[in-house]
Amino acid sequence: MKARRPPEFALRQLKNDAPRIVWLIRPPGESPQVLKILPLSPRRFLTYLLGISAPQRAVRGSGLLRRAGVAVPEVLSGPEIVFGREGSRIELRVSYVPGVSGWEVLQRVVQDPFADPRKLRAVARSLGRVVGCLIRNALFHRDLKIENFVIDAAGQVWIVDTDGVRPMRNRVREIERMLGRLAVQSQEAGIHIPFGVRFSLLREALRPLGREDRSAVIARLRDQFWVPGLHRLPMHPGRDPGRRIVPKTP
């Protein structure tokens, strides 16, 4: 397949999740923007006509998250179909959020033997609060990977990929799926996330839940190797698993 040329005003490529390519661009006189390009196929053209293409879902997801109080990039234009010599495509432009991804922070801190573990726990708490906001507003994000969080210079946490956001249908199961999805990259890269860091995130994420739902989520998480160590903290009837299972971080 012939490589596509960079779009006009391109600064650099941010991501290549074939077939989608994400570019950082800067049109003259404007602030940096993110251009998401998805090649048009007969199937994608049909989903676009039906209003269910990935870029259209991303716009709807952005609206849901924004109304819930989650920081997301502003939609600047699109999604729209563009025809050209490079082929037909769907384009979506959103504002650029300067910062570092949660994945970059995790890599830097975990791989640095002299890193302060309190920094990683602070990041985990920030990510957990965003997940807790989704739970509080009954929103499910099916692709809630660590790399889809960006932390700006002020410490604000943003979700920069909003495709796959919808109202929850099965609260406990979908909370488990979101938390499990957060661990995918670290598992694939073989990066060990310290016990205290994982529980810092879980404590914040599960705050909106009542006792019964917290117990159900934690019971399901026991079967995932993302949270090894839960077996060391057995649940007892009549006690609040949110307070007992997720201890306070020093």
Automatic annotation (TrEMBL):
Domain Protein kinase per the UniProt entry, residue ranges: 1-250
Gene Ontology molecular functions: ATP binding; protein kinase activity
SUPFAM superfamilies in UniProt: Protein kinase-like (PK-like)
Protein name: Protein kinase domain-containing protein
The organism of origin for this protein: Thioalkalivibrio paradoxus ARh 1
Lineage of the species this protein comes from: Bacteria, Pseudomonadati, Pseudomonadota, Gammaproteobacteria, Chromatiales
